[in-house]
Design brief:
By secondary structure, this protein is α+β, with helices and mostly antiparallel strands. It is built from 8 helices and 18 strands. Strands 1, 2, 3, 4, 7, 8, 9, 10, 11, 12, 13, 15, 16 and 17 form a 14-stranded antiparallel sheet that branches. Strands 5, 6, 14 and 18 form a 4-stranded antiparallel sheet that branches. The protein starts with 6 loop residues before the first strand and ends with a helix.
Length: 353
């Protein structure tokens, strides 16, 4: 079977006719329509497409997505390892090493028919069963990029010189379940994002128009804040990415300390999960990148054979209860892997009212 053609989907737009692929973020300030996928660990893939048209995500077709079996998902950290990691982070906080760390685990399941696995077919299932404000798909098989995200979180939006981020911290089943710890966690990350944007924005231009707003999504709620600024003279996408990546909401504070702890405690690379996925229209000077949460990707080089990974995590603070944090990752991982494992009836089973 031939590999499917390169493409990208974002916001009702379908990009085809691949022209160029680069890892240089300066290309995003040139011309054309680009898809962007940045792994948490750093590799960046920018792809310029020559054709762009409006196109809805097609309805899922029975059998088009040969998803993994529901019982085949495994986790890079089991319950014991994850809760032990939370306790270790609390020790780091007590020692003054860090204020907050986002601890993640990567779920993965083998693909039963890798040759027939088309990430765009999974996109159709996700769009019907779990619509998301920053959903997107990038399919570049020759470059090892096959990503579908149902992200609810804005990493960076750029309109001319104005940039905006929408960090999420605090996830529960309902607004009534939100805790003071969730608000404190959000405020910590807002401070971090303000600092990050301050590195590349004009002095005094960084503001916080919204703090801890409650957003409702399928079967859960998030606390979302908004941070906005004006890019400094001479700053563009390279400076913006260098100053703000990886996203603060999925690392911790301070970033350098959080990253060292993440490296010590997590046992699997995050890949596109917790990275960035989105699009840039260089001709219009606009762009929108999501934080790569609620994100699947096809890993055709996995040691045990082609697999479908998906990540889930939680922000750990001094006020964290290890079992509650594990439960938060379970909540985040409950809906989408179930959709991906139900190729024939997933979309109907999880259709929203």
């Amino acid at each position: 079977m031939h590999a499917p053609a390169p493409m990208a989907r974002f916001g009702g737009l379908l990009a085809t006719d691949l022209r160029e692929v680069t890892s240089d973020p300066a290309a995003l300030d040139s011309s054309g329509f680009w898809s962007v996928v940045a792994d948490f660990e750093g590799p960046l893939v920018c792809a310029r497409f020559g054709r762009l048209r409006r196109a809805r995500v097609p309805a899922p077709r029975p059998g088009a997505w040969p998803g993994p079996a529901a019982g085949d998902w495994t986790s890079s950290l089991d319950r014991a390892a994850y809760t032990a990691g939370v306790c270790r982070i609390r020790e780091h906080i007590s020692a003054g090493d860090v204020y907050q760390v986002n601890l993640c685990r990567v779920l993965s399941a083998p693909l039963p028919d890798p040759a027939a696995a088309d990430i765009d077919a999974l996109t159709a299932v996700l769009a019907r069963g779990n619509p998301a404000p920053y959903a997107g798909t990038v399919r570049l098989p020759a470059h090892g990029v096959e990503v579908a995200t149902a992200s609810p979180e804005l990493f960076l939006r750029r309109t001319g010189r104005t940039v905006e981020s929408g960090p999420i911290k605090g996830t529960r089943r309902s607004a009534g379940d939100l805790l003071p710890k969730d608000h404190a966690e959000n405020v910590m990350i807002v401070d971090l994002v303000r600092n990050d944007l301050g590195r590349v924005c004009a002095t005094g231009s960084v503001t916080g128009p919204a703090l801890c707003a409650v957003e409702r999504h399928p079967r859960l709620v998030h606390l979302v804040s908004t941070v906005r600024g004006e890019l400094a003279q001479g700053a563009g996408w390279p400076e913006l990415m260098a100053g703000t990546f990886p996203p603060g909401s999925v690392t911790g504070a301070p970033t350098s300390s959080a990253l060292r702890i993440i490296d010590a405690l997590e046992t699997a690379p995050r890949g596109p999960y917790c990275g960035a996925v989105g699009r840039v229209d260089a001709d219009r000077g606009t762009g929108e990148l999501a934080v790569g949460i609620r994100t699947f990707w096809i890993d055709r080089a996995a040691p045990a054979g082609p697999a479908l990974p998906f990540g889930a995590g939680a922000g750990i603070t001094w006020g964290s209860d290890p079992e509650r944090e594990w439960d938060e990752t379970e909540l985040k991982a409950s809906r989408l892997p179930a959709l991906a494992s139900m190729p024939h009836r997933g979309a109907e089973a999880f259709r929203l009212p």
